[in-house]
Amino acid sequence: MPPESRDRATDPPAGTAAGSGLPPANPYARSYRRGPFTVVEASGEIDMATADFLAQHLVAATGDARPDVLVDLRGVAFFDCSGLRVLCRAESRVRERGGRLRVVSDHPHIHRLLRASGLLDRFPPLPEPP
């Protein structure tokens, strides 16, 4: 973790206590349980320099048997192929464990990126969490 990222770290949000098995919030992702789902909220710019911060949360969220994960990208200002790679890896882990991963996004940029990469059928974005 680069030293400057520690300067931006925030306190973990409610619902991400140490006993939950979820990692603490970082500047680009936070996780929490909401009903049957594990929600991973991404924020800021997800690119080559920051995708590992999101990956950290997705690895934890996809570790259970039959995980049901919502990846909320509504707080993302920029998302590139590094973020797509992280999503694809997480979705593969979820499928191996008999669960599901869904993306929540209302950003046209993310919809275009999914369409252009051929991943729109794999990650059809929900406009809001169920």
What does this molecule look like?
By secondary structure, the protein is an alpha/beta fold. The chain has 4 helices and 4 strands, in the order αββαβαβα. It has helices at 3-8, 51-61, 81-96, 108-116, and strands at residues 29-34, 37-46, 68-79, 100-104. Strands 1-2-3-4 form a 4-stranded mixed beta sheet. Helix 2 (51-61) packs parallel to helix 3 (81-96).
Give short descriptive properties of this protein:
single chain, 130 residues, 25% strand, globular, disordered N terminus
Topology:
Elements: H1 3-8, E1 29-34, E2 37-46, H2 51-61, E3 68-79, H3 81-96, E4 100-104, H4 108-116
Parallel strand pairs: 2-3, 3-4
Antiparallel strand pairs: 1-2
Region (Disordered): 1-29
GO molecular function, one term: anti-sigma factor antagonist activity
Pfam families: STAS
